[in-house]
Known about the structure:
Elements: H1 2-20, H2 23-57, E1 67-69, E2 72-74, H3 76-104, E3 116-118, E4 125-127
Antiparallel strand pairs: 1-2, 3-4
Helix pairs in contact: 2-3
Amino acid sequence: MPEKKTSGIKNFFEEFKAFAMRGNVLDMAVGVVVGSAFTAIVNSLVNDIISPIIGLFFNADFSDVVIQIGDVGIGVGAFLNAIINFLIVAFVLFLTIKAINMLHKKPVEEPKEPATKKCPYCQSEIAIKAVRCPHCTSKLEGFPEAKL
C-alpha cells in the first residue's frame, strides 16, 4: 500500500514538472519577469524624469484635497493624483511601444512584375514574353505572328 502513495506523489510531481516545462508556461514566466523589470523602468521614468518636469510648470500634488462630509473624509485629491499618474504612465508607455514598433518595422517591398505566365491551353509555366508555348506549341492570343 505505501508504494501506491509514493508512486502517486511521484506521478503528481512528474505531471507538474511536465506542465511547468511546457513552452507556454515558460514564455509566460519570462513575460512576467521582463514585465516587472519594465515596470520598474517606466515607474522610474515617470517618477524621476516626467513628473519633476511637469512639476516645473504645474503644482500637480492634489493629495491634500479632501471633501469632508461629517466625520468622513473623501480623498478626492489622492484619487486625482492616481488618475494623473496613470495618464502619464500610459502616455509614456504608448510612446515607448510606438518607438519599439518603429524599430521593428520592415520596409514594404514593391511587388515584382511576373516573369512567367500560364499557357491557356496546357497550363504549363512559360516565359512572360513567349509568343508560342514551348510545351504544346500553341500560338498565344494577343501576340502577332513572329516574322523571321
